[in-house]
Amino acid sequence: MFSDHFTHYAQTAFTDRLPLLGKTGAAVAKRLSACPDGIRELLQFYYGFMPLSDAFTYDFDLFYRYADHAASLRKEEARCSALPEEIFLHDVAWYRINSEKIVDCRSFFQEQVSPLIQGLDETQAVLAVNYWCAAQASYGASDERTQSPLSVYRSGSGRCGEESTFLVTALRSVGIAARQVYVSWWSHCDDNHAWVEAFDGAAWRYL
User: Fold this and answer.
1) pLDDT tier at 142 (50, 70, 90 boundaries)?
2) In this structure, are residues 29 and 11 in contact, taking their beta carbons and an 8 Å threshold?
3) Contact 99, 146 (CB under 8 A)
4) With contact defined as beta carbons under 8 Å apart, do 110 and 92 qualify?
5) Torsion sign, CA atoms 184, 157, 164, 43
6) Fewest CB atoms within 10 A around its CB: which of 15, 31, 71, 185?
7) How far is it, in rounded angstroms, from Cα 52 to Cα 161?
8) How much of the chain, in percent, has pLDDT values that exceed 90?
9) For the residues of 131-153, what is the DSSP string, one character each?
């Protein structure tokens, strides 16, 4: 599923991180030995580069479900299989968008969004997901920690960082590469802004 270069890269990153992970790392290493090819490399990639707080806060099984979902997309979805490996890894498979609480929601959003994009080309599919997300939640200012995408969906509102996290998650759930972008702190006011870029198969487009 993955290149030899990435497989070695992920293994090395995980091995180098083990001293910092302590008992958690030992438990993860034991679990990894039983993981299928593809999922194992993604989990090594996650644990090799995730914030240490994530490794100690969230269970292995949660990250396994993210890796399993991403690996399935890579195998089964033509649009995802066609992505360059680096884009797939960073902009589809990676589990985190912002500082949101990590919850198991990719399969849920895939169920909601997948029927809407059947038969559409890449640009039309991106727009269909964008319109669906816009219909689910409207802007609401907040100074709290970034809500999870599932919380935005359930509450029907979120600030720009939360709305964009929601959209990126929905796009990634169906194998469309997407990323969150923040403008630098504006000089004319004490604020900034976030939006989304999606890959249409040829170039990154902003939404």
Assistant:
1) low
2) no
3) yes
4) no
5) positive
6) 185
7) 22
8) 79
9) HHHHHH-EE----SSPPPHHHHH
